[in-house]
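Mods, move this if it's the wrong board.
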Amino acid sequence: MKEVAIVILLIFSFSIFTGCAEMQHRQPGSQNSSNAGYCAAGGLIVGGLVGRNAGPKKNRTENTLLGAIAGAIGGELLCVVIENAARDAAIEAARTNRPVKYITPNGQEIRAIPSSSVYHTPEGNCQDITNEAWDTDRTYLGKVTRKVCDYGSGNLEVRT
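Not the wrong board. Structure tokens:
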């Protein structure tokens, strides 16, 4: 019975964190996508497994729950930090038309590399910016191309 309760809690926690990320994404004026829900889910699973196998076997359920909760929170926070740094780097790269490198407070490296040209859309002027990310141990995390646009307000907005 405890195993069923753990599975239900893990599924419930996953849906909460993913739902929060989606709600944040869909708020009016928000144009940034967020992988925080996926990071929280990954942290939840890893934390649950580590918690289950750590400590005395008689407290396995409690260890699993605590590990899952801690992992989910840690995973979500890590992604939010990386996502914010990537967005800020993309805006700065578009504004200066030069490559930008940010180091997050956790030590991850984020690079933003602007494309060579600005293109015009009916709404305004845009430029493609490629974000690349490395973890603290120099593990390549991946890259994504974002569209940074000025819609006439003077404030640059990031779209993925």
